[in-house]
Amino acid sequence: MEKEDLKIVNRGLEDEMELSGYRLCRWKLVLVGLGGLCTGGFLFLLLYWMPEWCVKATCTRTAVRDAEVALLRSTDEFKRWFRARVRIMLAPGKNPYDNLASQTASPQANDHAHNPSDSAPEKITRIQGDQHVQIRYFTLHSTKYFWNDTIHNFEVLKGLEDLSMTCSSVHSKHSLGLNKNQQEYRRFFFGLNEIDVKVPSLFKLLIKEVLNPFYIFQLFSVILWCTDEYYYYAMAIVVMSFISIATSLYTIKKQYVMLHDMVATHSTVRVTVYRGDNETEEALSTDLVPGDVIVIPSNGIIMPCDAVLICGTCIVNESMLTGESVPVTKTDLPNPQQDKKGGDGDTIYGTEEHKRHTLFCGTNVIQTRYYTGEMVKAVVVRTGFSTAKGQLIRSILYPKPTDFKLYRDAYLFLLCLVAVASIVFVYSLVMKILNQEPVKEIIVKSLDIITITVPPALPAAMTAGIVYAQRRLKKVGIFSISPQRINICGQLNLVCFDKTGTLTEDGLDMWGIQRTEDGRFHHSEEKADDKSLVTTKFVSCMATCHSLTKIEGQLSGDPLDLKMFEATGWILVEATEEETAQHDRIELTYVKPPNQLLPPPVISPEQDMELSELYELSASYMIGIVRQFSFSSALQRMSVVVRQIGERRMDAYLKGAPEVVASLCKKESVPEDFAEVLEDYTKQGFRVIALAHRRLESKLTFHKVQNINRDQIEKNMDFLGLIVMQNKLKTETPGVLEDLRRANIRTVMVTGDNMLTAISVARDCGMIQPQDRVIIADALPPKDGQAAKINWHYADKPGKPSNKPTKLEEMEIIMDDGHSETRPQEQYHFAMSGKSFAVIIEHFQDLLQKLVLHGTVFARMAPDQKTQLVETLESVDYFVGMCGDGANDCGALKRAHAGISLSELEASVASPFTSTTPSITCVPNLIREGRAALITSFCVFKFMALYSIIQCLSVALLYSIGSNLGDFQFLFIDIAIILLIVFTMSLNSAWKELVARRPPSGLVSVPLLFSVLTQILICLGFQIMGFLLIQKLDWYSKPDFYNCSAPHMDNSTNSGTKEERIMNDVNTTLFFVSSFQYLIVAVVFSKGKPFRQPSYKNWPFVLSTLIVTIFLFFIMFVPISGIYQFLELVCVPLSWRVAMVLIVLGNTLVSVFIEEGMELYGTKCLSWLCCRRRKVPKARYMHLAQELSVDPDWPPKPKSTTEAKPGPHPDDCSYHIEAVS
């Protein structure tokens, strides 16, 4: 392709593609049409399978802007080709965000201006009548790509985010909504707001399925067999193919219907659209376009689009997207322009950065909260397939192909079979010509060899093992939406685990609190609901700083918030809509202590205690929550603004990660021993949360608070103390991790929790062994002209004296000794936070792969960082599993080779595997079944390859004497032997425990190829032995020697009818010998330990093999006339039958001896050869480990610093690493 005319679409995204333009060429179309007719339609099929060839054969290259056909190629490792027809649309303008009043089509810089006076219908009519603008676009994977003259490329219009609008512009320019004309104009570009999963008709699916290359080959085989009068076998294959196609169609149709129903359930709802000036109208959700403003009803709604809240608060269940069933509070988008001080805080709006203010499509708004006279409004940001739900559905509809060595090798193996077929084809062609047979006979018989060598039952046989494994997984509560990945699970050698809810119990238990006063810690206290603490700021913070809400009378929200609030014993009261309107209160939620916790009132004799005064006493302790800044995993904190009833001034309370909270407090309020106390708790594995308080200025009114930036609130706070919570390990966690460790499967912890807590949990559960060292990599970004750097320090081992300098020296010595002596890879572990990980990715690319090689604890990781970590591990050739509860792990679960979600919610649709029991015992179960399925695939492939070759050899030998196998002989071999054996040999269940070695990942490996080749030679040798021996016997050409009631034939001639040519002694001999050979290789290849249960435990396989063996011996020694006529066999003398048994026994002994010998000594021989050749390991991580084992400067020494220095050239992205002690 000419580089200058090659465009890149979706640059930097997962679906990045190269695009080139083509124009249809008439003379090429005519030539292709003629070629298709001449080849009987085969050329059309070839072009259907190969989009690149199709476009190049029918079109000529042109500029992308003038293209009629777009040819695209993905830039990932798969390099897939796609073609799309470029269409032309007539629209009133070129830019969907333009103001319709403007006659020009020039895009506005940052926004569209809204002018209600432009709503006159004649304006849009006039523009449509006078100025039709041609817009070129094409559709691929449910996404429209429009031509943009400014960037001279096709681009996707996603929604309002295309405008790079600021938070303040969302409020100032988009809060009034669109008029009807603007809405219709935008619909030209964005289409209907629907995620349209079209269920293809059965006819379409049938055509698509039948045009599969494999079924075309089968069709060719059937036509060929019918030409040669092999009707029965042809019909059997047709029936098998029909069943296979019907099953496939049923499964595909069912998946489409399920997906369609899942999407369609709430895809069309009635919504209230805001038109400005407090005018609203009812409309269907399909009419919505980006820029519309919708009113969220108080009783909730299933969101039909992605929208940003600009007014009010919503309680949302996002389980469909995140897997987290806990309701989330969404607040309105801050408007920095309304806050005088916060003008600088105006940021570009993004759905990910501002997800706490964004309502996503498919999520369920349970209830809304709003102020008197105000509607809860949201601006539509994205519609249709551009929404979060739409992207999820697209990833299911158009998944990336599974890149696994087994599948690549399978095609290579088929090519080898085709090569063998070609050799035998040439041989048979020569033999037929030498025998002077008719031309038709020569062509048919020679082509028949190819249909024998490539077995028609191969795909069905290959999937059998996976289907059985899927069924066994279902029994232990593991469900899969991607069965092909079961094989990949057999290769996993690293598993990442989320901590909370995965390795540890989901809920947290209150362990105690540690308050501070005058910059000093009090002694730790067990309970927070003590009468003496009820009026303290500490307890007030615990009672108010949360996102809890009442749903149908039940407290609901984050489990941590719930535990914290319950520990106070306070009560949460939500004001109803009527109360809010009646009293014009500004608070929406109140918290108050129960009466029994209140101090007794002091009543003087002259006081008359009335009911109203009692109310006042209780109310004086009521606190109203005025504004909530939701918890952000990026900021690691949340805060609230509250007002105690009866007080004018407001208070701010803050809770979050201790390090973050301390940094936002006045220095004098943070105890000097804060770091030591925190370290002491986190080392013991406790989850620690810090609290802070600030008395707000009296000038801050309610309305100012509603628009203030959180940074203005979260500063100059007073440190209140620590809440200490216990997160217990699940009982099964240590056992499972020990099983994985024994199986040489690395385990990594990826969590959002504190690093020292994570290290402690990693030690407790056995992820880090007691004698192993933990090196903390603390990376700092460039600052004040200084380069980025990493400070290395070693984490103390628990239970050791805290004499730090001596401790570090001791570690270093042990480290060096251990490194040179035993288990160098298990001697040290790296731990780092999400912030350090981000710095290392940006500034220390050279070090990244070295760090992940021994990285065991990754703490404070954001969801996208979890995905980046999985990608980095995969880049060094690890097969990565990811196990999480689905809350923040969706991206990583999708990206990993095997993602296992412990959540049964709809989010598990993003994960290939879902466990119904929230326990990590599913991980070893899945790996065991994966290994069993993988070994089954190898066994089946080897067996099918041998079956093809054995049959091919039999036919080739028979061709040499002008004979062939009979129709019913083929039928008996293929149905009674092959299919029966293949489908039962796949039934071996997984071995009961994980072993330290993994099965091979591909078919093209020395042991596997050696096994197949030796068995081919053995079978060939014994077939040729039988073939040659029978022709040297005295009775071979003398029919008088026969003494049977069954038919016998004269072998003296090769001419005569087809029956005469088939029914002869050589045919009968090769039929019996080859039939036993199929059974021999099935038994030899059906491996048991260490990945599958032994074959003798697979009773259907044992029974099938015994039945077929007994039947063959029976018909060999008891020649029944009816059976012999049906199978077209002849009766041979008893002595030869005994000789055939000896040949079969000899074949069995040699086959078993060679295979078992290779199993025992083959691995040792190969490892000895590899040692002598000093073979470089294929896997990148093994290569790195080898390099690091001889690196004297690795691992980094304690108290040392590594600095990143830019290269000599400004454009050079590499870095020089300098260690500075």
Automatic annotation (TrEMBL):
Q: Which GO terms describe its biological process?
A: intracellular calcium ion homeostasis
Catalytic activity entry: putrescine(out) + ATP + H2O = putrescine(in) + ADP + phosphate + H(+)
Amino acid composition bias (Polar residues), ranges on this chain: 100-109
Q: Which residue ranges run through the membrane?
A: 29-50, 230-252, 410-429, 449-469, 938-962, 968-991, 1003-1030, 1068-1086, 1098-1124, 1136-1154
What membrane topology does the UniProt entry give? Multi-pass membrane protein
- Lineage, top-rank taxon, reads Eukaryota
- Stretches with biased composition (Basic and acidic residues): 111-122, 1194-1212
Recite the UniProt keywords alphabetically: ATP-binding, Endosome, Magnesium, Membrane, Metal-binding, Nucleotide-binding, Phosphoprotein, Translocase, Transmembrane, Transmembrane helix
* Listed InterPro entries: ATPase_P-typ_cation-transptr_N, ATPase_P-typ_cyto_dom_N, ATPase_P-typ_P_site, ATPase_P-typ_TM_dom_sf, ATPase_P-typ_transduc_dom_A_sf, ATPase_P-type_domA, HAD-like_sf, HAD_sf
The compartments listed are: Early endosome membrane; Late endosome membrane; Recycling endosome membrane
The main enzyme category here is translocase
Q: What is its main location?
A: membrane
Q: Could you tell me which SMART domains the record lists for this protein?
A: Cation_ATPase_N (SM00831)
Q: What is its EC number?
A: 7.6.2.16
GO cellular component terms, A-Z? early endosome membrane; late endosome membrane; recycling endosome membrane
What GO annotations for molecular function exist for this entry? Answer: ABC-type putrescine transporter activity; ATP binding; ATP hydrolysis activity; ATPase-coupled monoatomic cation transmembrane transporter activity; metal ion binding; P-type ion transporter activity
Q: Where is the Cation-transporting P-type ATPase N-terminal domain?
A: 159-230
Outline the segment boundaries, as ranges, of region: Disordered. Answer: 100-122, 327-346, 1192-1212
UniProt keyword ATP-binding, yes or no = yes
Enumerate the Pfam families for this protein.
Answer: Cation_ATPase, Cation_ATPase_N, E1-E2_ATPase, P5-ATPase
Per the similarity annotation, which family is this? Belongs to the cation transport ATPase (P-type) (TC 3.A.3) family. Type V subfamily.
Q: Provide the function of this protein.
A: ATP-driven pump involved in endocytosis-dependent polyamine transport. Uses ATP as an energy source to transfer polyamine precursor putrescine from the endosomal compartment to the cytosol.
Its name, as the record gives it, is Polyamine-transporting ATPase 13A3
Source species: Phoxinus phoxinus
